[in-house]
User: Which sequence fits this backbone?
């Protein structure tokens, strides 16, 4: 029995994140780009040493086309699952909030570093809030389909800065896209990733 990777199910409708992320962008980014990565991964892993592996194992270890498509499936799954149209809280709570203060000094400083990493990333890639094995959090820039799993880091929060993520809605104004994303982060989802 070989793996068949599937699309993550969204807890919101395509238009629900507007105006931060438009329905058109969800339809292309989730519906077309992510679907293509899922299809490519399924086609590429068939008959290889990764045919029985989990998505996380493939994203952490595989090179070339398999590694790129697995990284993109994993990264986009984390990205789309972290949003809610009306998040219950506008800032982290509990253990996540404490870890952020321990590692950055304040929530605002973490946001500042995340915005800086995402806005200055040259070309296509991802900005991450990650946790290491000791629970220390850090902000990382990763190019293309790279993923924290390759560095033994736990991904908590991610901003996709490939142009396909924001160009329909913000054109060249990447910082405006990044500033708006904070208002749709579901901090409970991010906190659950730290557990
Ligand atoms: Mn993307």
Assistant:
């Amino acid at each position: 029995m070989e793996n068949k990777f599937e699309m993550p199910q969204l807890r919101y409708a395509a238009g629900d994140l507007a105006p931060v992320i438009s329905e058109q962008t969800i339809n292309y980014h989730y519906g077309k780009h992510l679907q293509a990565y899922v299809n490519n991964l399924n086609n590429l892993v068939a008959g290889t040493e990764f045919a029985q592996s989990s998505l996380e194992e493939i994203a952490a270890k595989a090179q070339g086309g398999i590694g790129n498509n697995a990284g993109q499936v994993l990264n986009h799954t984390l990205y789309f699952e972290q949003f809610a149209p009306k998040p219950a809280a506008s800032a982290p709570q509990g253990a996540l909030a404490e870890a952020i203060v321990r590692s950055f000094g304040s929530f605002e400083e973490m946001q500042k570093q995340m915005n800086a990493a995402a806005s200055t990333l040259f070309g296509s890639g991802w900005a991450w809030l990650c946790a290491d094995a000791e629970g220390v959090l850090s902000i990382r820039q990763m190019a293309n389909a790279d993923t924290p799993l390759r560095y033994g880091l736990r991904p908590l929060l991610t901003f996709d800065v490939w142009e396909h993520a924001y160009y329909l809605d913000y054109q060249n104004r990447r910082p405006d896209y990044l500033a708006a994303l904070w208002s749709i982060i579901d901090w409970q989802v991010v906190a659950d990733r730290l557990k």
Observations:
- Residues 94-194 form a domain with the minor pseudopilin epsh fold fold (CATH 3.55.40.20).
